[in-house]
Amino acid sequence: MRRNSYKRTIQHVSLGQDLEVTERIEALSNLCINPIETIEPQDLLNAATGPRNRILLFDYEESLDLFKQVLNLPLASKNFETILINVPHRLTTEEILKYGHLKGLFYSHEDGNKITFGFGEIINGKNWLPRDVASQLLHHYRYVVSANTCTTVVDLTSREIEILRCLQSGASNLEISGDLYITESTVKSHLYQIFRKLSVKNRLQAIAWANQHLLS
């Protein structure tokens, strides 16, 4: 990993309870020019007074337990960017968003040298996201903007806006669930809320509302 001129540091957020994870991080650290530090989650609660150039590193499997034990980590803070490694499969958009300002994601099958090269690119201000993940995030934030710029005042969530867009394209419930990585029952639940909020009775009326009020 090439040396950076901004003195930004990668810090592994860990409870230190998983030896396999510790060994994995040490192996990656040995491949880096700047070693990876390890910090405890509690340290992040002092984010307002801490360094502003931290890049937080999470091991996916370890983070599942970490989030259960430590609530309200300030990952949305503008002080932090995050990296996620050891991801075994494609994640839902909701799972990705838990990690705040995600700058890099690496699957469990990826080579250590490739991962640390990606770390170097992130330290130097670039993103290192797989194409599928970048597409998911772009899709999500596109509809967040649509929700916030809708000309009609209706209390729709960004997810409900996404589903309305899918309706406009003619997608079935099954196709919507596949596109958004949610269950078909969740799609039906969202549709119920959309119909209620828009005071419409069916998909055609909802589509007509979307055609009139949602930005293209």
Automatic annotation (TrEMBL):
- Recorded GO MF terms: DNA binding
SUPFAM superfamilies associated with the record: C-terminal effector domain of the bipartite response regulators
Give the keywords, sorted.
DNA-binding, Transcription, Transcription regulation
Q: Which domain of life is it from?
A: Bacteria
Does the record carry NAD as a key word?
A: no
User: Which Gene3D superfamilies did the record assign?
Assistant: 3.40.50.2300, Winged helix-like DNA-binding domain superfamily/Winged helix DNA-binding domain
Q: Which GO terms describe its biological process?
A: regulation of DNA-templated transcription
SMART domains reported in the protein's UniProt record: HTH_LUXR
Record-annotated HTH luxR-type domain positions:
149-214
Is the keyword Plastid assigned to this protein?
no
Question: PANTHER family per the record?
Answer: DNA-BINDING TRANSCRIPTIONAL ACTIVATOR DEVR_DOSR (PTHR44688:SF16)
Which protein, by its recorded name, is this? LuxR C-terminal-related transcriptional regulator
Q: Which organism is it from?
A: Vibrio chaetopteri
